[in-house]
Design brief:
Number of domains: 1
Distance between the termini: 39 Å
Order of helices and strands: HHHHHEEHHH
Radius of gyration: 17 Å
Strand order of the largest sheet: 1-2
Strand content: under 5%
Structural class: mainly alpha
Number of helices: 8
Helix content: 55-70%
Number of strands: 2
Shape: globular
């Protein structure tokens, strides 16, 4: 199978797992799920099919890693972050004079971001993996206080339901 086809399969599986996570949230926390419109989820990660992203991602994850491949991937990843508001990086404002500021993420994108992270747990068949992943990565994330509180509260609520199922 070509690297492009391997990457396409990964993308379709990932989007399917984002949808699984969202369906679970809808079932258990409908007040959160109601904030995300189905078209938003249907378009999840569509930019990964764009010329700016598709080949660099495919080569980075399924090809030979060279300096050029890594550089191309960095530009693709930057493009992805700047074109997908479900990434926290999208909401970091870089000011000319006074550094960075974290903007509050709208609720619908916070829910989609959690589903995006959780998709990897669904893929591995371990729905708890997200909690260790978040604990390991949370210090690297630049989130506004409001966004961080929502994310951590939602992850706590998800864990609580999983523990009781």
């Amino acid at each position: 199978m070509s690297i492009e086809n391997k990457y396409k399969k990964y993308l379709f599986d990932h989007i399917n797992n984002v949808t699984k996570g969202f369906s679970w949230i809808m079932q258990h926390f409908p007040e959160l799920g109601m904030q995300v419109d189905i078209e938003q989820l249907q378009n999840h990660d569509n930019s990964k099919f764009d010329d700016e992203e598709f080949i660099p991602y495919a080569e980075y994850f399924y090809g030979e890693k060279t300096d050029e491949v890594e550089e191309d991937f960095n530009y693709a990843w930057n493009h992805h972050q700047k074109n997908n508001p479900h990434h926290w990086q999208y909401w970091v404002l870089i000011n000319d004079e006074d550094g960075t500021k974290c903007l509050d993420m709208p609720l619908n994108y916070m829910v989609e971001m959690i589903c995006d992270w959780w998709a990897f747990s669904w893929n591995k068949g371990n729905l708890y993996e997200i909690f260790d992943w978040y604990k390991k990565n949370k210090k690297k994330m630049m989130l506004s206080d409001t966004t961080r509180v929502f994310v951590e509260d939602t992850l706590y609520r998800i864990k609580e339901v999983l523990d009781n199922e």
